[in-house]
Amino acid sequence: MYDVVIIGAGVTGSAVARELSRYQLKTLVLEREEDVCCGTSKANSAIVHAGFDAAPGSMKAVMNVRGSKKMKALSEELDFPYKQNGSLVLCFQESDIPKLEELRERGEKNGVEGLEIVTGKRIWEMEPNLSPDVKAMLYAPTGGIVCPFKLTIAMAENANVNGVEFSFDTCVEDIRAMEGGYRITTGKGVVETKCVVNAAGVYADVWNNKVSERKLSITPRKGEYCLLDKKAGDFVYHTVFQLPTKMGKGVLITPTVHGNLLVGPTAEDIEDKEGVNTTAQGLEKVASQARLSAGEVPLRMVITSFAGLRATEKGEDFILGEAPDAPGFFNAAGIESPGLSSAPAIGEYLAELIAEKLQAKKKENFISKREDIPCVAEASPEEIQALIAKDPAYGNVICRCETVTEGEIVNAIRRPLGARSLDGVKRRTRAGMGRCQAGFCSPRTMEILAREWKTSPLTLTKAGGDSRLLTGEK
Amino acid sequence: MTETRELICINCPLGCGLTVTLKDKEVVKVEGNTCPKGEAYGKKEVTDPTRIVTSTVRVSGGVLPVVSVKTASDIPKGKIMDCAEALKSVQVQAPVAAGDVVLENVCGTGVSVIATKNVSAA
Amino acid sequence: MKNTFDLIIVGGGPAGLAAGIQAKKAGVEDLLILERDHELGGILNQCIHNGFGLHTFKEELTGPEYAQRYIDQAMELEIPYKLNTMVLDIAREGNEKIVTIMNREDGLVFLRTKAVILAMGCRERPRGALNIPGYRPAGIYTAGTAQRLVNMEGYMPGREVVILGSGDIGLIMARRMTLEGAKVKVVAELMPYSGGLQRNIVQCLEDFHIPLKLSHTVVDIRGKERVTGITIAQVDENRKPIPGTEEFYSCDTLLLSCGLIPENELSGKLGARLSPVTSGPVVNESLETSVEGVFACGNVLHVHDLVDYVSEEAGRAGSHAAEYIRDWDKDRSRDNKENAVRIQTEGGIRYSVPQMIRPEHMEDTVTVRFRVGRVFQDVYVSVYRGEERILHKKRRKMAPGEMEQLVLKKSDLTAAGGLDKIVMKVEEA
Questions:
Q1: pLDDT at B60
Q2: Secondary structure of residue A419 in the 3-state scheme
């Protein structure tokens, strides 16, 4: 019997897993996909929000500000890319300036530091490419950007190193309360546990509603994005928002931590919890909305587009903590934006609640640090030479666009919770993330995957399941 | 009976548009070609069309898993798929040199299939 | 390893090989070809179909055979080369260039050279750049990636195929997949004309009854894990899909053959001026980029249809690089770029290569290659020197998919009077 079973290995589930791994608890993470970070966590704006947006006193506000403040230290401890580039909220009409003021006041109530309203020439001194129609903007210096894959992977890996088990390709089919806990039926068998953490993203309502009468209702809200070439990466320095509407924070333009430019998202409520397709209308909307902020945004430099689903709960706030009528069943539900920013805080909050409930003691041998895969593209010549001296595979470039070497790919496969698919390798190393979008490197990466996992290339997938890359021998 | 056929010459990248006139199934005229090859192609294409077939066959014990091959000369167009099918079961042992015959008299055409690349033994 | 050279050639495909052979013949002894793959020959190794070499060798060869002819010559001339080696950077240091390379054996090494020939070839436009809406399942490949999987690795990327784009590789792969037992259901082309050669439409599509739908594009990709189907629709004259014309094809694979782009990363990093039309460097009559002593040829310069022209062009780059090295100690201050005359292209001509000519530097003639922006029939291509027409050539047919060329004479360009511009244009008969 497990002490805790976490449903979902997205950023929230992984954060809870990592924080729980500080305690003497037997913890298991169930993930229906073949890897961590396969749902909402992989397709979002990759922003660490400053925290001025959420209503004061809401869980969103509390967790966002707390999570955002933790992010820098966490990025150093777990070695993932994070940058505080500051964010801007643009206002295009004089009459809307009071709304900016309101946003600033809200931010101050939430505890966001350094907020400032910028007007006049300074707007374009800060961001020369912004539209001449900008009348004023809110500047939040604590806003940041993060690699959502690496954040999630780092927390999950670290949890795993500290003893948390992960079971992939394991879809939860049913949850029933039992004496002293829960019985979870999965596609791979039954597990019993004292506590459950429901971090199932857009499906969190389904599992909550199995055990609790306080019903949740989660609507997937689709967001479509365009990712632009690194050549466009310095188009803006800050993350540029528009004044938020009821449907979200509007279309933003932001650099990514890896130096691309990201534009999006749209916001459309849909029925299909798997509906991550992009649409012609959606992509057009991204383009036209982005041009409001900066008319010259170089959209023809797009290298890929994608869509993600925000798990919007009808109450529009995070549902965090033990369900009132289901002891031991802890929700982390309705985690839409600012879920990524909040993850470190949500992890800590839930882990503390669970530890208290189970009277768990902290481990003495908790390993708090984790080292990422060496990155040849960003290393100095001396560092590269040292890497190659240790392992010549670091001299063999596989992905020409992002300069990812065989050594990095092998490392990504062999490390804890190692990559098993092309996308798994991509999220860990960026191989295939560049402007040719894996046209060049995928046959080569497949060869390495097959060799390392001692399998035929015919079994390899893009992202697990039936996403097979090849259909047979010629 | 006279009929005309519109073709595009495939001899070279120029892709000349040919008009072939037939009388009682005999070619009487080829127009639109820029060179003699075009005329020959026009005549042949309406009476006995042929193609070079290129493919690969499996190699065992080589540095590469497959070796590229071609028919040593053109074969009847109607035999292209049969030829491709016949090559599926062919496996050669490395080393292979360009020009080596990998399959003789493919599908009874009298034409051999030959390797177009060297593959050394692993 | 030795780390100073007279000439470094980046790329060991058809361009790099021909450039190296010609440079060596022209007297460059101290040269090195760098190749990132495990063998020389470049993309020709996966182009197993025939049709190469008609111009150069007066016979039809397959890609590997064509490559081998050049590899044999390079071996005979004992031209040094390094395989499995990636060039990470090229930078200037005075007149010299520093080429940063990396491989397993030597690690990261900085090479110093007098001249560089860029011969990295081109890459395919991926799905992302086309912004095709839909899901992102497995089973979407560029035609070239599929070609590598089938012809080099011996694997089939799919069984039921829709192809977007009628570029030559797409057409060739339609036939190739068919021969290997796959069903190619349709080739959709956005433009009202094919992007590939006519002969390939005949022998790759028509021979196998594969329909080609011009003015069509993919409007949806279905399948959450592997492709399960593709919807195509007709487009209007602005290339926008026309509602109501959608057709669904069930399939497991989408191949993309939607254009090639010169691999211009190194050229750009080096600071060579790039042409917004070709995406390759701007060059003068000697195929020298805006960076002195750096030459470009083949598909890295502009995308060719025929390898024969790549070899020919690369040979010229090799000779010019040899001249540059021979004159290394000469004072170059007087052949600055001011003496270069721009070739202005208009009236349907999209670009020319070279884009600049230094009349006093040119040999007796210079071959200018160009592409047109749309299909033309029974027109003239004219070249003006100032107001004076110096060339007027009839063309029965010109199409964007087919590269054109004409030859300019030095005597025409250097006639009395200063030369300030050359204009090339299409003129109606």
A1: 96
A2: coil
* Cα torsion through C17, C20, C22, C27, rounded to 10: -160
Distance CA A142, CA A53 (A): 13
**Two tokens, residue A70:** 């933790």
The pLDDT of residue C416 is: 61
Tens-digit pLDDT profile for residues C195-238:
888 889 999 999 999 999 999 999 999 999 999 999 999 999 99
- Chains with at least 3 CB pairs less than 8 angstroms from chain B: C
The interface predicted TM-score of the complex, written ipTM, equals 0.94
- The answer to whether the beta carbons of residues C142 and C232 sit under 8 Å apart is no
Q: Is A258 a catalytic residue?
A: no
On average, the pLDDT of chain C sits at 94
A248 pLDDT band (50/70/90 cuts)? low
DSSP codes, A170-201: --EEEEEEETTEEEEEETTEEEEEEEEEE--G
Using N-to-C axis directions, what is the helix angle for A148-161 and A422-429, rounded to 10°? 100
* Residue C389, strand partner residues: C384
CA distance C310 to chain B (A): 15
Residue C181 CB coordination number (10 Å): 14
Which residue of B11, B54, B58 is in closest CB contact with C154? B58
**For residue C335, what pLDDT band results from cuts at 50, 70 and 90?**
low
pLDDT band at A58 (very low <50, low <70, confident <90, very high): very high
Q: What is the pLDDT of residues A345-375, one digit of tens each?
A: 999 999 999 999 999 999 999 999 999 999 9
Q: Which two tokens stand for residue A11?
A: 């950023």
For the entire predicted model, the pTM comes to 0.95
Selected catalytic residue, list A32, A49, A106, A426: A49
CB A337 within 8 A of CB A244: no
Placement of tokens 């070499």 in the chain: C53
Cβ–Cβ contacts within 10 Å for residue C237, how many? 7
Burial class of A159 by CB neighbour count within 10 A (0 to 12, 13 to 18, 19+) = buried
**Contact status, residue B95 vs residue B62, Cβ threshold 8 Å:** yes
CB contact under 8 A, A472 and C88: no
Instruction: Compute the distance between CA of residue A332 and CA of residue A16 in angstroms, rounded to an integer.
Output: 9
* Contact between residue A408 and residue A373 where contact means Cβ atoms under 8 Å apart: yes
Max CA pair span of chain C = 69
3-state secondary structure at position C68: helix
Q: Which residue in A60, A26, A47 sits closest to A193, CA to CA?
A: A26
8 A C-beta contact, residue A209 and residue A200: no
Q: Do the Cβ atoms of C226 and A466 come closer than 8 Å?
A: yes
What is the reported pLDDT for A466?
Answer: 96
Across C57-65, average pLDDT: 95
Q: How far apart are CA C140 and CA C145, in angstroms?
A: 10
Write down the residue that tokens 């995928």 correspond to. A442
Count other Cβ atoms within 10 Å, centred on residue C15: 33
**In C251-348, beta strands by DSSP E:** 253-256, 260-262, 294-296, 341-346
Cβ A426 vs Cβ A433: under 8 Å: yes
Residues 145-184 of C with CB under 8 A from B: 150-154, 179-181
What would the mean pLDDT of C376-387 be, rounded to a whole number?
91
Residues of C with Cβ-Cβ distance to B118 under 8 angstroms: 68
Q: Which of A145, A296, A286, A306 lies closest to A235, judged by CA?
A: A296
| C-alpha span between A337 and A335 (Å, rounded) | 7
- For residue C333, the model assigns a pLDDT of 60
| Pairing outcome for strands C294-296 and C107-118 | parallel
Residues 6+ apart with CB under 8 A from A11: A37, A41, A148, A151, A152, A155, A339, A340, A343
Tell me: pLDDT of C418 over 80.
no
Could you tell me the two tokens for A77? 């401890």
